[in-house]
């Protein structure tokens, strides 16, 4: 593979596991140095070690809802590797419940992590990138933000909001040379989805024309495309990685 991110530094939030870690791995393979931000510092450090240690990967404890944490995370990229070229806003959580049983705290937390966390990432990274007159920001939305899922009034709202935020930020930053795009995964095989009841899994599979779940690497390769110069004339877009589900 050509070194699409050679000499560039990328920050990935929620980078210790799942899709975030897969994106970090893809970026390192493409020549980037990565900074992994995660609430779980031990897991992030283990992930950084697996990627090749401090020469290519650094772990930082980060709560994306705290703007000072996001400042420190981005500073680790600039101070440690000399630049901030790519940011992937991947950190996310679920607190699924029907509206009748969902607590206000579970609503607030999901909105906070996804929407405020992504906003913190975009605005802080954009301030650094506009000085360099270049940069790419990739936000993780979800198919749930397009169609709405039962038990996910919080998550679906947050993921739809990320699409709107992506477009607004893309318009603000385009003349500064900073591109902002989003990825919307569908059913992706991970520890989280494999814990799903079999009936729910089967129901989702029946909705997928390609008749299989996606792999984390298939989301990561799209994130790499959006982070690299291969997508140099794309901003404000949301690419669906869903196997054709709900197209």
Describe the SSE topology.
Elements: E1 9-13, H1 18-29, E2 33-38, H2 41-51, E3 57-61, H3 67-81, E4 86-89, H4 104-132, E5 135-140, H5 144-147, H6 153-173, E6 178-185, H7 191-194, H8 198-205, H9 216-227, E7 238-241
Parallel strand pairs: 1-2, 1-4, 2-3, 4-5, 5-6, 6-7
Query: What fraction of residues sit in β-strands?
Result: 15-25%
**Share of helix among residues?**
40-55%
Number of DSSP-assigned strands: 7
Mean pLDDT: 97
Instruction: Please state the structural category.
Output: alpha/beta
The oligomeric state of the chains shown is single chain
Number of domains: 1
Shape: globular
The neighbouring-strand order within the major sheet is 3-2-1-4-5-6-7
Largest sheet: 7 strands, parallel
Give the uncertain stretches in residue-range form: none
Fill in the CATH topology: Rossmann fold
Give the H and E element order.
EHEHEHEHEHHEHHHE
- CATH level-four homologous superfamily name: NAD(P)-binding Rossmann-like Domain
Radius of gyration: 17 Å
Distance separating the two termini = 30 Å
Instruction: Quickly count the helices.
Output: 9
- Which architecture name does CATH use? 3-Layer(aba) Sandwich
- CATH level-1 class: Alpha Beta
């Amino acid at each position: 593979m050509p070194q699409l991110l050679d000499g560039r530094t990328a920050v990935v939030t929620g980078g210790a596991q799942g899709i975030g870690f897969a994106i970090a791995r893809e970026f390192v393979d493409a020549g980037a140095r990565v900074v992994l931000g995660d609430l779980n510092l031990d897991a992030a450090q283990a992930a950084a070690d697996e990627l090749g240690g401090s020469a290519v990967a650094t772990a930082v404890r980060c709560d994306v809802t705290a703007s000072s944490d996001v400042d420190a995370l981005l500073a680790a990229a600039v101070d440690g590797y000399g630049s901030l070229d790519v940011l992937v806003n991947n950190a996310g959580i679920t607190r699924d419940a029907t509206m009748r049983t969902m607590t206000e705290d579970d609503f607030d937390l999901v909105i906070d992590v996804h929407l405020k966390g992504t906003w913190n990432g975009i605005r802080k990274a954009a301030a650094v990138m506009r000085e360099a007159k270049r940069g790419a920001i990739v936000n993780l939305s979800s198919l749930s933000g397009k169609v709405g899922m039962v038990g996910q009034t919080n998550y679906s709202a947050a993921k739809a909001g990320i699409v709107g935020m992506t477009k607004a930020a893309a318009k603000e930053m385009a003349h500064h040379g900073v591109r902002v795009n989003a990825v919307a995964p569908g059913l992706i095989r991970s520890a989280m989805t494999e814990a799903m009841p079999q009936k729910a899994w089967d129901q989702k599979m029946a909705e997928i024309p390609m008749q299989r779940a996606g792999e984390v690497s298939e989301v990561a390769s799209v994130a790499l495309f959006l982070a690299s110069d291969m997508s140099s004339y794309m901003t404000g877009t949301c690419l669906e990685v869903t196997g054709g589900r709900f197209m």
